[in-house]
Amino acid sequence: MTRPHTAGEVSGRFVSTDPDDPELTAAIAALAPSFTILAGPHSAVRRTWIDTFDERLRRAGMVLVHATRDGETYLELTDADGHRLRVPAAAMTWPAFAPDLPAGPLRERLAAVIDIRALSVSAALRSRERQLRVLDDDGKTVARLIVDTPLGHQRHRPIASAPAAVLSVHAVRGYGAEAGRIATALTSTPGVEASRTSRRDDALAWTMAGAKPAHPLTNALTADMPAAEAVATVLDGFRRTLEANVPGLIADIDTEFLHDFRVAVRRARSTVKLTGHALSDDRAATLGEELKWLGDLTSPTRDLDVYLLGVPAMAQSLRSSPAADLEPFREHLAQRRDVEQRRLVRGVRSKRLRELLDQWRDIGDPLASPAHGKAALAPPITAATLARTSVRKSHRTVVKLGSQITAASPAEDLHTLRKRCKELRYLLEIFAPLHDKALHKQVLQVLKALQECLGEFQDSEVQADALRTFAGEMSSAGAAASATLLAMGELAAALHAEQQRARAAFDSTFAAFMQPRNQRSFDALLPSPEPAREPKPAREPKIARRRLESTRPRRADSSTDGAAGGTLLSLHTGGAA
Amino acid sequence: MKIVASYNIKGGVGKTSTAVNLAALAAREGRRTLLWDLDPQGAASFLFRIRPRVKGGGKALLRRRTTVDAAIKGTDFDNLDLLPSDFSYRNMDLDLDAEKKPTRRLRSLLSPLADEYDLVFLDCPPGISLVSESVMHAADWLLVPLMPATLSLRTFDQLTAFVADFDGRRPRVLAFFSMVDRRKRLHREVVDGLTGTRADIATATIPALSAIEQMAEVRSPVTMSAPRSRAAQSYGALWADLQRRL
Question: CB–CB of A25/A40 below 8 Å?
C-alpha cells in the first residue's frame, strides 16, 4: 500500500526543469546503483481538488481529489494520516453535498467533516503523468517516482507559471530508507530541486482558481497600533469576508455563504457601534445605518434556512404524529425561501450595496479618512486602550442587565441581554490577538454558555411564533391538511417546553458567568497601561457588586482585582490568538 | 476488521496459494488488506519479493519490542500489505508458551490494526501446535484447503470438533477442495459427493493447475499475473463464496 504524506515515508517532491530528460533516470541509477528503474507509460490525468468554501477538509488535514486517469474517473480521499480511500465516481458534479457522494466509508468520513457545507472545486489541473517504479535487487518495488507535467486547460500547453515537471517520490510502506536514498539521488541531479509545497497548493497557485475566504479577524492587530487603524483593519477584514461570500450566496451553493455574510454584517455593525468613535469622524454612523439595512435584508432567507435545516430533526422529534405529516410544512418553507432568496439576491446586486461597500472600503483605509490629519495632531489612543475600554464597557452592561433579571422579568429583558452578550462576544473576538490566551479562552467559554442559554430561550419563542405564522399562511393558502397542522402544533408545544427549560437554567448559568474567577479574568484580559494614562476605573453597577460580594473573598473588590490581574500578566501581541 | 486464517494440519495442500490469492483479490476490490506470513518457510513473502525478515524476530513481535505496524511492508499491489515471515517463527511455539495467555496473543497483536485494515489473512504453518491454536483463537474464519481424500475429511471433522469445544468466541470454519485433479476417480467421487451437501464446504474448488505451481517462478499471485486464467477464476469463485459469508 502506498502511503504518501506519512511521517518517515514521504521522501519528497521536487521540481525539474526538464521532465523527459533521460539523465534523470540515469542519475538515479548512477547514484543508487542497487536499484532498477522501470518506466511506465504516460497517462493523461485531470485532477480537480475539492473542498468546502471555508476549507474544512484542508483544516482537517484531508485532501479530496476528483480525478480522471486514462478514462477512469474516481474520487480519492487522503486523510491526515496519509491513508487513501478511492471510489469510482464518474457521475459526480460539483457543487455537491455529503448525501450526493457515493455511499460508503469515503462519504461517512467526509460527511463528519463537511456537515452541511457544499463541496466545490477549489483547483483543477491537467497533467501528463508517468510512473517510474524503483525496484530493489529482488525485483520488489520499493518506491514509485511520479513525474507530473502540469498542463493548462488547453491540452498540451504548459502553464507558464508552473515548472516543467514535478517529481514526487512515494515510498512503499516499510521501504523509507530506500526512498530516502532515491530522494538524495534526485536532489543531486542537475536541474532538479526540492519543492516545499503540496500538489494541491501548487495547483491553486498555478491556476489561481478558487477565491479564498478572507480571514475576518486579522492577526495584524497589535497592542500599540493607533485605535483608528485597528478599527479600520478589523472592519476591512469583515468587508473582505462579506465580499468573498457574495458569489456563493448569489449562486445559492449552500446555506453557509449567507450565514457567514450575515455574521460579517453583524460583527461589522457591532464594531461600528462599540468602537466606531475611535475613527474620529461620523462616517461610521452612516455605515452603521446601512449595515442595519443589510442585516434586515438577509434575515428572512436565513430564518427560513434555519427552519429548513431543522426540519429533519423536527420530524424525528414528533411523538404523536408520523414524520411524513411535516412534508407539506417543509414544502411551504422551501417555497417561501425561494421567494426570499430572489429578493435577497436583488438586494445583494443592488446599487445600494455597491455604494455601501464603497463607503466601507473608504473606512477600511485609514489614510482616506478626512479626519486623518486632524487625528494625527492629537496623541491617538492605542488599540490596547480601545480594547480595554470597549470590552469593559460592554462587559459591565452585560453584568448590569443580567443582574437585573428576576423571575418576573419579561422575555424582552432576556432578549436585550442576549444582544449585549453578542456584542461582548464580537468585541472579544475582534481583540483576541491582544488578549491573554488562557484568560480569553476562559471568558469566552463562560460567555458562550450564557449565550447558548439565552439563545435557546429566544429561538424557541421566535420559532414557536413563526410556526403559528406559517400555520396561518398554509391554512389561508389551503396547503395545510389537519394532520400537518397537528404535527406543527406538537412542534410548538415542544418549543414552548424548551423555552421553559432554558428560562429555568438562566439563574444558574448567569451565576456561573458571574463567578469571581471569571469576572477577574474579564478584567485581566489586557494589562493596564501606566497609571497616568489609565482611565479612571468605572464603578461596577450596584446590583452586580452586590452579587459579586456574596461570592467573592472579602479581601478584594472588583477594581483592585483588575489592577492585580494587570500587573501579573504579560501582553500578547501580533497573532497570539 | 475480519481475520481469515488459511490453515490445515497437513502441509502442501495449498494454504499459501489460497492466502496469497484471496488477499490479492480482496485488495483489488478496494479492501485494505494485510497478509501475515506466519510460516517460517516464508513462501508468501517470497511470492511478493519481500525479504523474510522481522527486526528482532518473532519473539520481538510477540513481546511488542517490534510493533506489528513497524514490521509491515507494502506489496507491489494497492491496498495489500504484508507482515513478513522470519525464520525465527520456527520457535514461535516456545515464544508463545513464554507469554501470558498465549492463545490470545496473536489476536491482541493484531487488534491495534483494526482501523487500518478491513481484512487480515493469516498464512499458517502446517501442524497442530500452540501457534495453530493461537491462530484459531485469533481468526474469525478458518479457511481449510482439503485434498479430495477420505482422510482429509476425517481430519477436517476433527478440526471442527476441536474448534467447537472453545470457550467464548470461536472461529467459523469453511473448507474447500484444493488441488483437485478431475482425471482421478477418487477426486471426482469425493468432490461430487460432498460439494453442496455440507454448509461448511464451499462449492468452489481449486483445481491442480500448473499456473498455480508456477506462481513461485513468476513471484506474483496468479490472480494478478494472469487474472483471466482458469486458476484466477477458481480463486475468484472461492473469494466470492467467502465474501458472502464474511
Answer: no
Query: Using 50, 70 and 90 to split pLDDT, how confident is the model at A205?
Result: low
Answer whether A1 sits within 8 Å of B81, measured CB to CB.
yes
Give the residue on B whose Cα is nearest the Cα of A81: B116
Sign of the torsion angle spanned by Cα atoms A276, A281, A282, A284 = negative
Specify the pairing of strand A63-69 against strand A72-78: antiparallel
**Domain enclosing residue B75, as ranges:** 2-245
> Chain B contacts of A139, Cβ < 8 Å?
49, 219
CATH of the domain at B214: 3.40.50.300
Contact A528, A563 (CB under 8 A): yes
Hey, of A1, A133, A170, which one would you mutate to test binding to chain B, going by the most B CBs within 10 A of its CB? A1
User: What grid cell was written down for B30?
Assistant: 478496494
Q: Which residues contact A355 (CB under 8 A, 6 or more apart)?
A: none
Nearest-angstrom CA–CA distance, A274 and A288: 11
What the block records as the C-alpha cell of A434 is 491582544
Per-residue pLDDT tens over the stretch B134-159: 999 999 999 999 999 988 889 899 99
Q: Determine which helix (DSSP H) or strand (DSSP E) holds A441, and give its type and residue range.
A: helix A437-476
Report whether pLDDT(A550) > 80.
no
Question: What mean pLDDT value characterizes chain A?
Answer: 79
Tens digit of each residue's pLDDT (9 = 90 or more) over B21-31: 999 999 998 88
Whether B54 and B86 have beta carbons less than 8 Å apart is answered as yes
Q: For residue A536, name the pLDDT band (cuts at 50, 70, 90).
A: very low
Predicted confidence at residue A527, as pLDDT, reads: 67
Q: Which helix (H) or strand (E) holds A144?
A: strand A141-151
List chain B residues with CB under 8 Å of A175: 73-74
**ipTM of predicted assembly, 2 dp:** 0.88
Q: Minimal Cα distance from A172: which residue of B?
A: B74
Q: Is B76 on the interface with A (CB under 8 A)?
A: yes
pLDDT exceeding 70 applies to what percent of chain A? 76
Contact B30 A86 (CB under 8 A): yes
Tell me how far apart the alpha carbons of residues A312 and B2 are, in angstroms, rounded to a whole number.
Answer: 35
Specify which residues A86 forms β-bridges with: A76
CA distance B235 to B221: 10
pLDDT band at A313 (very low <50, low <70, confident <90, very high): confident
Q: Does B81 touch chain A (CB under 8 A)?
A: yes
Predicted TM-score (pTM) of the model is: 0.66
Cβ–Cβ of A173/B74 closer than 8 Å?
yes
Residue A556 predicted with pLDDT over 80: no
Give the number of other CB atoms < 10 A from CB of residue A100: 14
Q: Closest Cα to residue A220, out of A236, A202, A200, A241?
A: A236
Count the helices and strands in chain B (H runs, E runs): 13, 7
Distance from CA of A136 to the nearest CA of B (A): 9
Residue of A nearest to B68 (CA): A174
> DSSP for A36-95?
EEEEEEEEEEEEEEEE-TT-HHHHTT-EEEEEEETTEEEEEEE-TTS-EEEEE-TT--SS
A161 contacts A203 by C-beta, under 8 angstroms? no
d(CA B131, CA B107): 12
Cell numbers describing residue A419: 444582544
User: Taking CB atoms and an 8 Å limit, are B48 and A140 in contact across chains?
Assistant: yes
Number of domains in chain B: 1
Do the chains contact at B73 and A172, CB–CB below 8 Å?
yes
User: Does the N-terminal peptide bond of residue A102 adopt cis geometry, omega within 30 degrees of 0?
Assistant: no
Q: Closest partner residue to B50 among A3, A133, A140, by Cβ? A: A140
**CB-CB neighbours of A550 under 10 Å:** 9
Per-residue pLDDT at A548 exceeds 50: no
Please report where in the chains the cell 515548472 appears, as a residue: A163
- Say how many C-beta atoms besides its own lie within 10 A of residue B70's C-beta: 13
Q: Which residue has the cell 486579522?
A: A218
